[in-house]
Design a protein that fits this description.
alpha+beta; 2 domains; five-stranded antiparallel beta sheet; 360 residues; disordered C terminus; single chain; Rossmann fold; 8 helices
Length: 360
């Protein structure tokens, strides 16, 4: 797997300065942070779209740029695939020709055209032109074109942010399939923690042009949204659900070692799916509660507590990690501390279903 070393500095006329350094060898790495933090700027330097004033970028054994030595490899020679938010398909070419364009730019991509078409479900679209495609279809074609290059590194600049949520969720299914099938090292830009939790193994957090944290997604992202970004609403619970089945008129699935009641619309989805809910949707108790309508009651232990000015985020290990939000008074009344057993009560109605496998 290609390893990326990035160290660049660039000051823009506006006064914004990027001064960032990171490295990654993860299969999928996210550049995460608020808008204007420098994420897209980093991507442009890796792709060869922007030449920094100082720095060095190395991909595997290839030096993409070394300003001190006046080395700057042209974008077309970097072996990097790019998927933009705006798709950027050639309007005068059919879907087939748009896909083949990506393939022709590499002598041998190692990606089978027919297999990719089947995986992304593009077969019925091959003779169409971009103007005849929906936004989701265009995004799948753009993704396919980037993959067919057989890149040493795939870059994606917020490719899903322009899509409405239900369509975005379905595109994520195709993206997961493709990245799992060909194991292409990938860096994608996002300010959406749900996307990062779902797709990435590693994350680099950027704020105001600087790297403020980097590491494995779960711990690094949790720090970013609870401590380093005080204005952020907090961590998001995004859980994978397997073994979905209908029992006595309701739907259940497995999350870790637990069975959970799920929203009714899960019946139209293909397993696995993802459910997401906020920490404020999780109620904590020191014991199982009888006589309430909340059926999802997951036992676990407190792993971490993050105190802010007016609230506290509590991480609970229930086999997977869940976050709950409580007031400081509630934390004291419950006697919350790292290691104590608690029960997480989660309303089924609070869960949002994501990742349905329908053809967009």
């Amino acid at each position: 797997m290609s390893q990326l070393h990035f160290r660049c500095r660039h000051r823009f006329a506006s006064g914004f300065e990027l001064d960032a350094q990171f490295e990654t060898d993860g299969a999928v790495t996210a550049l995460f942070g608020p808008s204007g933090g420098g994420k897209t700027t980093c991507l442009g330097m890796i792709a060869g779209i922007l030449r920094p004033q100082a720095g060095r970028v190395v991909l595997g054994d290839t030096v993409l740029l070394d300003i001190a030595r006046n080395d700057f490899l042209p974008a077309e020679s970097r072996g990097v695939g790019v998927v933009f938010q705006e798709h950027r398909l050639f309007p005068h070419l059919t879907v087939t020709d748009n896909l083949r364009f990506g393939q022709r730019r590499q002598k041998k991509s190692g990606i089978d055209f027919d297999q990719l078409v089947e995986l992304l479900e593009l077969g019925e679209l091959l003779d169409r032109y971009p103007r005849q495609l929906s936004g989701g279809q265009q995004q799948r074609v753009a993704l396919g074109r980037g993959i067919l290059r057989g890149p040493a590194l795939l870059l994606m600049d917020e490719p899903l942010s322009a899509l409405e949520q239900s369509l975005k969720d379905r595109i994520l299914v195709y993206l997961e399939r493709a990245l799992a099938q060909w194991r292409i090292p990938t860096i994608f830009v996002s300010h959406d923690q749900a996307d990062v939790r779902r797709l990435a193994q590693c994350v680099v957090v950027l704020e105001a042009g600087k790297v403020v944290d980097a590491g494995q997604v779960a711990t690094t992202l949790d720090r970013a949204v609870t401590v380093k970004m005080q204005t952020h609403p907090g961590p998001l619970n995004l859980l994978r659900v397997d073994e979905i089945s209908q029992i006595a008129g309701h739907w259940e699935g497995r999350i870790g070692e637990h069975r959970m009641y799920l929203p009714l619309e899960v019946g139209a989805a293909r397993a696995p799916v993802y459910v997401q809910f906020l920490p404020s949707d999780v109620t904590l108790s020191r014991a199982h509660v009888d006589g309430v309508s909340i059926r999802n009651q997951l036992p676990g232990r407190v792993r971490e507590m993050v105190s802010l000015a007016d609230r506290m985020f509590v991480a609970i290990d229930v086999g997977v990690l869940l976050w709950a939000e409580v007031t400081m008074d509630s934390a004291r009344e419950l006697g919350l501390a790292v290691g104590i057993p608690v029960v997480c009560l989660i309303k089924t109605a609070a869960m949002k279903l994501a990742g349905q496998g329908h053809n967009p």
